[in-house]
Amino acid sequence: MRRWLAQRGITYGLIYTGEALGNLSGGVRRGALYEGKLEGIVAADLEKFAGLRGLSFFANAFQIHRTSGARDHHFQSLNTISNIEADPATRLSELWLEQKLFNDRFSIRVGQLAADAEFFISDVSTMFISSDWPTVTAANLPSGGPAYPLATPGIRLKIDPTPNWTGLVTLLNGNPGDPVTVNRTGTNFRVNDPPLLMGELQYRYNQNRDAPGLAGTFRLGAWRHFGRFEDLRIDDTGLSLANPVSSGRARLLRGTSGIYGIVDHQIYRPRGGNAESGISVYSRIAATPADRNLVSFYLDGGVVFAGMLPWRPDDRFGASFIYAEMSNRARAFDRDMVAFTGQDRPIRNYELTFDLTYLAQIKPGWTIQPVFQYVINPGGRVPDPVSPSLPIKGGAVIGVRSTISY
Prior knowledge:
Blueprint: H1 2-7, E1 10-23, E2 31-45, H2 46-50, E3 55-65, H3 70-75, E4 89-101, E5 106-113, H4 135-138, E6 152-159, E7 165-173, E8 195-205, E9 216-235, E10 250-268, E11 278-287, E12 295-306, E13 316-326, H5 328-341, E14 350-363, E15 366-376, E16 395-405
Antiparallel strand pairs: 1-2, 1-16, 2-3, 3-4, 4-5, 5-6, 6-7, 7-8, 8-9, 9-10, 10-11, 11-12, 12-13, 13-14, 14-15, 15-16
């Protein structure tokens, strides 16, 4: 049946990701948890199915369960610990139509879109369970922005003038809504919020299997959100929000924006290997204004070894880190709180996460992945709920993930 449908342009798939994680030290509580996500995908080549040249359809949905959350409930951290962590729900994610034109060099996609499906992505990083929509956008945009598990209505334009160059632009509703109280099922289709505009330019080379050199991809992008954002330190009268005579209403600032760059590059390519084999490194870097954004600077990176063991050609292993720097305006507010209250409290500075992992293919369609992570300064060094004068302690996480694809 699956082959018969594929011949007529219709494909579908199921991906189940389950993992057990344990917090060995630090954080606000210890213990183990289980997290699971079932993703269903349906795609249609409408040219094959109905003779509509260049038109395609895509939809996916999630059933997210038992995600009690190592990040939120165990560490109160900002950086991703597990990229399947989300509020438990059955929800629609993306739902769109795409029309390709000019020999597939230009396409327009319309519908409910997730920005992290095409923007701000490092291809090399995707094996890490901490690889996700970066902290600099997740922590700063309303409701985390249109990214897993949330999507919003929008439009995306793509142009491929040459095989090496790609340009992407998207305009999306900028607030997907709270995933619990506002948009639990993903079918709210919000269109009245201030928009989010993103653009990205990509350059790639030596991607073909028979290419003689090392493969590389460079990306340069930017975003602009047109909503209003609260100043992290100053109220609407010009006083510090920590001042006892402050109005308590933060000064409103118009819009926010940011820029980012991404590098994926092979540093060793075995004889006969493709662009994903051998040893590759990656990094993502981003910056955004400090007065209205909690995270003003972001940097991640890592190294991946693929197919390096002759008796395990499909296995991978690697190490990565995520660094998120708290804005100087947030730090200034913390110092104001100490000055006005006379009570000691941590001054936020940065959060840093390390990740070591091994991805083993048990059989085609099934992988097992043991993981070790260490979190430093959870939440950027926020107060411990039990002892507010002290920060939440960093700690170690171990676990294993299983992914089954059909």
